[in-house]
Amino acid sequence: MNTIIKILLVALIVTFSNVHAQEFQGEATYKSKRKIDIKLDSTQMASGMAEQMMEMLKKQFEKTYRLNFSKIESLYKEEEALAAPQPQGVNMVMVMSGGSDVLYKNIKEKRYTNQNESFSKLFLIKDDLRDIEWTLGSETKNIGDYTCFKATTTREVEDIESGISINGDKDLSTADKEPKMKEITITAWYTPQIPVSAGPGNYHGLPGLILEVNDGSETVICSKIVINPKNAVKIVEPDNGKEVTQEAYDKIMEKKMKEMEERYRTNDRGRDGERIEIRIGG
Fold first, then answer.
1. CB-side exposure of 15: number of CA atoms within 13 Å?
2. Rounded mean pLDDT, 118-138
3. pTM of the entire structure?
4. Which domain holds residue 141?
5. Is 13 part of any domain?
6. Distance in angstroms (rounded) separating the CA atoms of residues 91 and 74
7. Greatest CA span in the chain, whole angstroms?
8. Does 196 have pLDDT greater than 70?
9. What's the structural domain count of the chain?
10. Residue 96 maps to a domain
C-alpha cells in the first residue's frame, strides 16, 4: 500500500510540474537589422538607381518577429509586412539563406519543426535540436527592464559574402567550386529573470530567455515582452507541408538554386534592361 501511495504522489508531482510549466507563458517581439556593405558601380546603373536599391535593401532586412514561449515549447514567426517596391526597370533577385516561416521548438523533447515555403512549395522540416556549445560570460547589460548576461559560441558557415551581379557580368554560381568555409562568432544576451531556454530563430539552450543575438552581420533584439498575457496564445506545432529532414531540405534547396541560376543566365541572353542579383550568406 505504501508503494502505491508513493507512486501516486510522484505521478501527481510530475503532473503538477508539467501543468505549471505549460501555464507559464510569454510573448516577445523581436526586430532584426542587417549590416549592408555593398559597393555599387554608378557606371553600371542609371543615376539614382543605386540609392533606390540600397534603400530597398535596408527595408528588406528590417523585420519583426513574434516569439510565443512556455518552459517547454516555443513558436517563432515573422509578422507580415508589405514588400518594399523595386526600382523601376530593374529585375532584382534576392537569394538568401537561413530563413524560416514558422519555427516550432520543443526543448523537452529536443526537436523542432520548421514550416517553410520555398520556391512556391510548402515544406515541413522536422529534425532534432542540436545542442549549442555556449560559453557563459560575466559581462552584463540591460535590455529594457531586464538584466542580461553575455554568452558566445562559434560555428562554421559558407563564406558567401554579399555579392552583386549586374547583367551577368559577375558569375556568382558556386556549382563547380568547393564552398569556402569561415568561422563566425555569435554573441547572445540572455536574462535569467525569464527562466526559459528559448530564443529567436535557431538560438536556444541558455539559462534564460535570449533577448539579443548578433552574428557579425545581423542583429536580432527584443523590443517588447509580455509575461502570462491575459489572452493566452496556444503554441501549436505546424503540421502542413511536405515532411523532410533538414539534410534533405538543404539538398533540395541547393538543387533549386542551381536551376534558378542557370535559368536566369539563359534568359538574360539577348535581354534588354538590368538584372541585379544579390546573394546574402547566413
1. 6
2. 95
3. 0.76
4. 25-280
5. no
6. 37
7. 88
8. yes
9. 1
10. yes
